[in-house]
Amino acid sequence: MKLLAPLMLLASTAEAHYRFSRIVVNGVAEAKEWTAVRQTKNYQGNQGVTDVNSNDMRCFQMRTGTSTATINAGGTLGFIANSQITHFGPVSFYMARVPDNANINTWEPAGNVWFKVAVIDAVRKGNDWDWPAYNKVQVDFTVPKSVPSGKYLVRVESIALHQAQSVGGAQIYLSCAQVEVTDGGNGTPGPLVSFPGAYRSNDQGLLWSYYPVKTSYTAPGPKVWTGN
Predict the structure, then answer these.
(1) N or C: which end of the chain has fewer CB within 10 A?
(2) Mostly located where (predicted)?
């Protein structure tokens, strides 16, 4: 996506919001919303989270899950939005291991339990920026082959930067799916972070400048764990 007309972009996308309510496991999509995905507070209004210090940064959930999807380590897991991702910005994926003695349907992912497994970040092209997730309906990542078997919450996060010229302007669209990973490895995921806590409101990855146009950009949060 080229940012050639920022004022027109702001006008045309100010009301275009979305939610992630279904997942795709190895190419097979869920038929209904809120099956393995915990129902989010924006299930009607599609609004994003703007306060990175809010507990809504965990899963933005209104209700916990009704089922748990199964995927093999090394498989492809995707999230489907109810409409196109109509705002430019990065998309990140996190996972949190559910303790063996906890119920995945009710477990609250508080504290340093999250690790980043993938990010769809900006691509600099000359004087412009391309955002590979922009206008997509589905975003995917590969579950690291060495992630240990077990039950996880998998968190998708789309950061909309179209109004992020000042602190608090970024809109974060997120949800969590309940997933059991099979055929896993013996990796040690990390670094582990918490939500809230992983981001600060003035992080450069949560701010955008049209004039002058940014010359570098990196999504906020920890480094991606690709497996070990």
Answers:
(1) C
(2) secreted
Distance in angstroms (rounded) separating the CA atoms of residues 228 and 223: 14
| 16 located within any domain | yes
Q: What is the pTM of this model?
A: 0.92
pLDDT at 10 over 60: no
Cα 132 from Cα 91, distance rounded (Å):
9
Distance CA 128, CA 210 (A): 11
Give the Cα separation of 134 and 151 in Å (integer): 30
Q: What is the DSSP letter of 171?
A: E
- pLDDT tens digit sequence for 161-213: 999 999 999 999 999 999 999 999 999 999 999 999 999 999 999 999 998 88
Instruction: Look at residue 132 in the predicted model and tell me its pLDDT.
Output: 97
Total domain count, the chain: 1
Residue 201: domain span: 6-206
Q: How far apart are CA 102 and CA 92, in angstroms?
A: 26
CATH number at residue 86: 2.70.50.70
Average pLDDT over residues 136-147: 98
Q: How far is Cα 13 from Cα 27, in angstroms, rounded to an integer?
A: 29
| Token pair 């004022």: residue | 7
Flag whether 175 is in a domain.
Answer: yes
3-state DSSP percent of the chain in helix, strand and coil, to 5: 5, 30, 60
Q: Rounded to an integer, what distance in angstroms lies between the CA atom of residue 18 and that of residue 16?
A: 7
Considering Cα of 76, then 78, then 84, then 87, what sign does the dihedral take? negative
Q: Are 77 and 36 in contact (CB under 8 A)?
A: no
